[in-house]
Amino acid sequence: MGGLFVRKVGGAASLIVATQKIAPLVFQPNDAHWSSGHFRPVLVAGAVADLATVAFYASCSDDLAAAGAGGMSLLVCAVLAAEAIVLLGYAMAAAARRGPGSGGGRIPKGKTARSLPNRIVMKTVGIVTGLVSLISLRDLLIPGTIIGAIPRDDIYLEWTGALVHSPPPGSVEAEEHGMEAALHVGDRFASRLTALNVLLTCLFKVTSAFLVRVGKDGSGETKSRLIWRVQALGDGLITFVFRLFAMPASSASLDLRWHLMLLGYETFILFLYAYF
User: Fold this and answer.
1) Measuring CA to CA, which of 12, 178, 193, 263 is 20 to 30 A from 229?
2) Of 90, 42, 35, which Cα lies nearest the Cα of 207?
3) What does the pLDDT look like over 139-187, one tens digit per residue?
4) Contact at 8 Å (CB) between 70 and 56?
5) DSSP symbols for 65-79
6) Measured between alpha carbons, how far is residue 75 from residues 13, 166, 172, 173, 208 in Å?
7) What is the DSSP-derived secondary structure letter of residue 107?
8) According to the model, what pLDDT value does residue 256 have?
9) Among the ranges 116-125, 215-224, 252-261, which has the highest mean pLDDT value?
């Protein structure tokens, strides 16, 4: 059941990343304009996400080739690399065409050109997305490593199967599952890919909350809203997946209520400032 949970979260996160790149371009808001550079944060973050995925597939090329999926991984890398080049090209073209004050707006009262678009969103993303990023970074780079500061982290790793496909060296799990870990390389790949996609959703939220500035034309919130609109729906989807697996997790002594409260709060804040 824990392996299914990882795959469902991974599928939701992958859908969010793809939608984040597509939705702002297809459903362009009336207050967002190419010539004003409003789409540059989305384009640049999308290109970084594509290149990060290419790097991940390249790092797993040997395992994919051994499983007979080498051709598929090369195709994925080629498509994502081409998309990244296009996104970066449009981002640079928009920057080259932009003139002084092309946003046509005004700096909101009480803010400067270097101010963040919304400090409430910044604090919320800093807390919730920061914690999610920490766990996802561990699952991507050092899967199976227990973080003692996180309550019940060992139960989480056991339930999701990380202690089977990536047992920590010298641990009891390594003695029990060390010989069979190589047979679960597919589970390890799926778990790490899930962690990567979750990190990429965090990249978009961090970009909108910390890297975008109000700007001299006051367009910072317009830029951030292009990301908030999608990420609010994405957080809602991941919260729904967590809710579906709350009961199965509780049977394994893993309490997901704190996770649901944090994700639900971030969803509410993003939805509030994205659509109202």
Assistant:
1) 193
2) 42
3) 999 999 999 898 889 999 999 999 999 888 877 778 887 788 888 999 9
4) no
5) HHTT-HHHHHHHHHH
6) 21, 28, 40, 36, 30
7) P
8) 93
9) 116-125
Q: Distance (Å, rounded) from C-alpha 126 to C-alpha 139?
A: 19
- In 3-state terms, what secondary structure has residue 252? coil
Contact 269, 258 (CB under 8 A): no
Do residues 16 and 201 make contact, with C-beta atoms less than 8 angstroms apart? yes
158/220 Cα distance (integer angstroms):
43
Best CA proximity match to 6, nearest among 147, 160, 144, 141: 160
Q: At a CB cut-off of 8 Å and minimum separation 6, what does 58 contact?
A: 77
Q: Which of these, 22, 44, 25, 46, lies nearest to 34 by C-alpha position?
A: 25
Half-sphere exposure of 163 (CA within 13 A, CB side): 17
Contact 91, 40 (CB under 8 A): yes
- Cβ neighbours for 125, distance < 8 A, ≥ 6 positions apart: 205, 206, 208, 209, 210, 266
pTM of the model: 0.93
Residue 167 DSSP code:
P
Distant-in-sequence, close-in-space partners of 267: CB < 8 Å, separation ≥ 6 = 232, 235, 236, 239
- d(C-alpha 147, C-alpha 134), whole Å: 10
From the CA atom positions of the chain, what is the Rg in Å?
20
Q: Is the pLDDT reported for residue 108 higher than 70?
A: yes
134: pLDDT confidence band, cut at 50, 70 and 90?
very high
Classify burial at 90, counting beta carbons within 10 Å of its beta carbon; exposed 0-12, middle 13-18, buried 19 or more. Answer: middle
